[in-house]
Amino acid sequence: MAKVRLNFRCFFVAMLKILMVASEAAPFAKTGGLADVIGSLPAALAAQGVDVRVVMPRYSSVDLSQRAVVSLGLVRVPFDDGERLAEIQQAVEPLNTSVGDVPIYFVEAPHFFRRPLLYGYDDDILRFGFFSRAVLEMLRQTVSLKWRPDIIHCHDWHAALLPVYLRTVLQNDESLKTIKTVFSIHNLAYQGLAPKENLPRLGLDWSLFNHHQLEFHGQVNPLKAGLVFADALTTVSPRYAREIQTPEYGEGLDSVLRARDAALTGIINGIDPSAWHPLTDSYINHNYGALDWNNKARCKTDLLQKIGLQQEKNVPVIGMVSRLSSQKGFDLVADIMEPMLEMGCQFVLLGNGDERYLHCFNELGRRFPAASSMNLGKFNEELAHHIYAGSDLFLMPSLYEPCGLSQMIALAYGTVPIVRATGGLADSVSEWNPQTQAGNGFVFEEFSSAQLLSAVTRALKIYRSRAWPNLVKNAFAGDFSWDASAAHYKELYENLARDKRISDAKIPVAAPAA
Q1: Contacts of 337 (CB under 8 A, 6+ apart)
Q2: Same structural domain for residues 455 and 404?
Q3: For labelling alongside 202, which of 117, 132, 386, 482 has CA 20 to 30 A away?
């Protein structure tokens, strides 16, 4: 009888309700990895029994022509010494139909969001301050919504003022009082700094402009506001959560992050298996998987034919798919290009970015036409899939990397990564140990050309040894699905909902595959 009562009680446990607030989400609007997270994580949470919904701005570029769109009505948003209207729209189609409906709402405010670009305007702090306040007014005023989240999960600086509004201007509102907030840092370098004169236009009191709250070297810092006012903080890998508490990686906010260490959790991102899986990848001609990767050799042949390089026995292909910037370690790659190729390998690069790197690697391509292929400029999705599938090794020598997805994609394709031990790279790739046969890649610590070349040398040595198949097997063994990450987020939400102390030590992340 007791067992029956227990089951009866569990049946009526309320489903956890989460509202994701972000400036972009795939497939609606995307400039970077944030959109991929918001396009994938909610579906994974829904599959684990979380009532999760998403809200984002309605930009000019958002195409809803193939979706049923319902207007939930207008909300009045107190803002800029007055009141502005915003329409709340809902796209009825789900983000991911394979796991059921994940509702997505849009804040339609043409004055702020009907512009050619998502970001880069002088009034961005006002645009996204309005967005944050409008989301709260949506919850207060939209009668047809009939839904209140337990937790609002805000992403990056564009949504960082929402916890400030919730805990100051609207702190006495009965309809919002029980809501808690999570703030996620996807890249600490982007903070949304703006002149202090914007503060009253945001509808925030000058008393908040102090060293402990919104002030940062004489400017308003939205990201700092999120760090101070949110109930719990997350970032995109456990290693990055530790790194950003140091002066080297803290972007001037390390002391704020150290003060909130108990509230900060590192949860590594996942990859979308529907987009990145060698068994089902429609871009490659020969599918393969962890149990049988014979077709990977055929994918290598396809890649070399596609980029115009001659295939040679025992010559590995080292691939890169990346934005060309100093953060991604391209100074190091340029330094070692000649000695690396002299060791007997081929190199293929796909990417776009800073002009000086475009010029540098085009020149390197002209110097080494028989051993390298530089595919620079417009991104080529098909070629990216061919590089992940057809390369033997994948290079990612980043100066810093909050999470990184490319190394996870490479591992999913059995392509062995060579990475620097920073952020999510250190959390997902471990050094191959010839004695124990553990590890899934090659790792170097010091950000230097010599250390990178040493890692490449180790990789080429193992490639030409009998141990290589065991290393490839380890690469396939990692679980970097969103299901694993969503489970950690769900646990964090549950702890926060129960008022438990939040600590990254309490939410472990699986170790890299051995």
Answers
A1: 347, 364, 368, 372
A2: yes
A3: 117
Pairing outcome for strands 317-321 and 346-351: parallel
Instruction: For Cα atoms 387, 390, 393, give the angle at the middle one, nearest 5 degrees.
Output: 80
Summarize pLDDT for 43-102 with one digit per residue, the tens: 999 999 999 999 999 999 999 888 889 999 999 999 999 999 999 999 876 544 444 579
Q: What is the domain extent for residue 97?
A: 16-266
Q: Structure pTM?
A: 0.88
> In the numeric block, which tokens belong to residue 395?
């290079």
List the structure tokens of 484.
Answer: 């694993």
Q: Does an H or E element contain 39, and which? A: helix 33-47
Domain tally, the chain: 2
Same domain, yes or no: 369 and 261: no
252, amino acid identity:
G
Q: Are 276 and 409 in contact (CB under 8 A)?
A: yes
Rg of the chain, C-alpha, whole Å = 24
Q: What is the mean pLDDT of residues 209-223?
A: 97
Q: Are residues 205 and 328 located together in one domain of the fold?
A: no
Structure confidence at residue 379 (pLDDT):
87
How many other CB atoms are there within 10 angstroms of residue 459's CB atom?
24
Place of tokens 């009141």: 83
Strands (E), 136-270: 151-155, 180-185, 194-195, 215-216, 219-220, 232-235, 264-266
pLDDT band for 6, please (50, 70, 90 cuts).
very low
Percent of the chain at pLDDT > 90 equals: 86
- CA distances to 130, 188, 236, 243 from 248, rounded to whole Å, are 33, 12, 18, 8
CA-angle at 297, arms to 294 and 298, nearest 5°: 100
Q: What are the tens digits of pLDDT across the range 237-271?
A: 999 999 999 999 999 999 999 999 999 999 999 99
* 58 & 194 share domain: yes
Are 248 and 299 part of one and the same domain? no
Q: What is the pLDDT of residue 68?
A: 86
Is residue 467 over pLDDT 60? Answer: yes
Supply the DSSP string of 100-126, one letter for each residue. Answer: ----EEEEE-HHHH-SSSSS--TTHHH
Residue 115 CA to residue 122 CA, distance in Å, equals 13
For residue 153 the two structure tokens come to 């999960």
Could you tell me the pLDDT band of residue 308, with boundaries at 50, 70 and 90? very high
Residue 396 forms beta bridges with which residues? Answer: 419
- Which residues are paired to 104 by β-bridges? 54, 91
**CATH code for the domain in which residue 121 is found:** 3.40.50.2000
pLDDT tops 50 at residue 502: no
Do 422 and 308 belong together in one domain?
A: yes
Q: What residues have CB less than 8 Å from 176, skipping those under 6 apart?
A: 136, 139, 140, 166, 170
Of the candidates 280, 274, 482, 311, the one whose C-alpha atom is nearest the C-alpha of residue 390 is 311
DSSP annotation of 311 reads: -
